[in-house]
What does this fold into?
Amino acid sequence: MSFAARLSEATSHEIAVRDALRRRGWAAELFGQGQLEPVRPHLRFINTPVRWMSDIIAVRPYPESRFLVFVDAKAGLKHQQTGNHDVEISALDSAEKWLDFAGQDCRYYFVFSDGGVIKPDRVREIGVPGPYRGNGSGTPFLIFPTDACTPFDDVFGPVIPDHLSGGD
It folds into this structure.
């Protein structure tokens, strides 16, 4: 799959996850390097966690508190053949740095196209190095079983009836 096709698939998935969060009562916006044109193409040459910013930033107010979440939306259907999801080690490292910087009222999640959700510390705990197969970015990654993920609704809550219309 070409870079343009992968980028289109990723962008569609990011928008779908943002809209799914909004339907559950979250204030959610696109946040990642995809929002940084024309800077984005240059980021791969610079050693910065900005290259691995999460795709979405969201907050959910509760009566007694509120907390912020960063979401890295992972598109792709390879899991249907392998039974595994994967996360680049650089993305995992960056997620952990974002959490250290952001503070205790923040969470970070990877959200996959099958609706599975997992935290960076869980990926680090159970992931094993994946073999490079000649496509994608070529950076090292960890693989883990899809059933290690938690369903989207269990993490972010059910759809709120008055938010059924979706996005904007």
Remarks:
- The chain has a mean pLDDT of 86.
- Helices lie at 3-23, 40-43, 79-82, 89-102, 120-126, 152-156.
